[in-house]
Design goal:
Blueprint lengths: L2 H33 L22 H14 L3 H27 L6 H4 L5 H7 L8 H9 L15 H14 L7 H12 L6 H23 L6 H9 L19 H11 L2 H23 L4 H10 L5 H6 L3 H22 L10 H10 L3 E3 L5 E3 L1 H11 L2
Antiparallel strand pairs: 1-2
């Protein structure tokens, strides 16, 4: 094996091993949350319920509580189990897809990007285990069908159900409908003339629209104390109520005021730096392919539906990750289907250097960036025992 071949092999092996490590780190977070009786954002957002009256995201949490009661579990324990299962499903499908795509090692630039959810969540646990996990699992389940025979299309109904659940659970996920639809079109190669395909599209689009209209109609209101009481009565720590549940008492004007207080020259410059560090390697990846204009156009178009989120909430790092993941998975499906091909050689040393550098920074889950990245997070966990 030549020196370049050894470098390519090292990139492939290292990228997949890093993704495996990230999976373990992500799974450690809900286990720690379970021991603490629940975390305000990781499980608190999932368990917003309608005990205090009809409220956006309430039906999703109410369903989890009902299932927990039926199973004789605490809502926190059931939520942690669901989160762990979704992480495993998403990462298994993702690793399968990248194991195929990494025949061209340049795709490691996506897998090891700190703005792509595996490394993002591992290096910045505050950003992980939110309800976009449902969307990423739904999208990942479409990837096994890309470039393979029709048997893998059987996962499509499960994927669609997860996507609709994500939209019911959190209104931000509605903005990923264009990316989800495009990924389904690329990965599943459906015949738009088929009745079943039309019905499925109608169900997904109609269900997504209904979820958004419900969230908009009940965007204000709800009694955080009643929502909290429904959980603490079932064994959750009162601490679970000081995050997403507490925010039920705030309206969109509060969120905009908070955004205005956090956004300044320093934080804005840090976010632009994180965007450049995330974007430039991926632009390099795109530029090596024959249909790079198509890939770049898709990436830019899929940013547009997400842009409104930047105007109403402070979680800019999460929104960046939504774009990188949704656009990246569509591009990955194009690669697996053979729609795009790498026609220009990559410099293995450059790809390897970028992948290593990606371990030392991560976008903040709000506005900014965090130096040290995964390396700093690992060091902190070692020091913490």
């Amino acid at each position: 094996m030549s020196g370049e071949g050894r470098t390519d092999h090292a990139i492939r092996t290292g990228a997949l091993a890093l993704a495996g490590l990230c999976t373990l780190l992500i799974l450690a977070t809900p286990l720690a949350d379970l021991a603490a009786g629940g975390e305000p954002w990781h499980q608190g957002d999932w368990l917003i319920n309608d005990a205090g009256g009809t409220v956006r995201r309430g039906p999703f949490g109410a369903a989890l509580i009902a299932l927990a009661d039926l199973a004789g579990l605490s809502p926190v324990a059931l939520t942690v189990a669901v989160q762990a299962a979704l992480v495993l499903v998403a990462m298994a499908a993702l690793l399968d897809a990248f194991a195929r795509a990494l025949a061209q090692p340049v795709w490691a630039l996506l897998l090891t990007s700190p703005a792509f959810f595996p490394l993002f969540w591992a290096a910045r646990p505050e950003a992980g285990l939110r309800k976009e996990l449902l969307v990423f699992a739904a999208m990942a389940l479409l990837l096994p069908a890309a470039g393979r025979d029709g048997r893998w299309r059987r996962l499509a109904p499960v994927s669609a159900a997860l996507f609709l659940a994500a939209c019911v659970g959190h209104e931000a996920n509605v903005f990923l409908l264009p990316a989800y639809g495009l990924l389904a079109f690329v990965a599943l190669r459906p015949d738009p003339r088929a009745g079943a395909v039309r019905v499925a599209a109608l169900v997904v689009v109609g269900g997504t629209a209904a979820a958004f209209l419900f969230a908009w109609a009940y965007r204000d209101g709800g009694d955080p104390a009643a929502v909290c009481a429904a959980l603490t009565a079932r064994g959750a720590s009162p601490r679970i109520c000081i995050g997403a549940i507490e925010w039920l008492g705030h309206d969109i004007a509060f969120a905009r005021d908070l955004l205005g207080s956090l956004l300044n020259r320093r934080s804005g410059a840090a976010f632009l730096l994180a965007s450049a560090l995330a974007g430039l390697p991926l632009i390099h990846l795109v530029a090596l392919h024959d249909r790079w204009r198509l890939m770049l156009g898709i990436s830019l178009l899929l940013l547009l539906p997400i842009l409104p989120l930047f105007a109403v909430a402070v979680d800019w790092g999460r929104w960046m990750a939504l774009h990188v993941a949704s656009a990246g998975l569509v591009l990955l499906a194009l690669r697996l289907q053979g729609v795009v091909r790498q026609v220009r050689p990559a410099r293995p040393w450059l790809v390897a250097a970028i992948c290593v550098a990606n371990l030392f920074w991560v976008p903040d889950h709000v506005i900014g960036w965090v130096p040290g990245g995964l390396v700093a997070e690992l060091a902190a966990r070692v020091r913490g025992g």
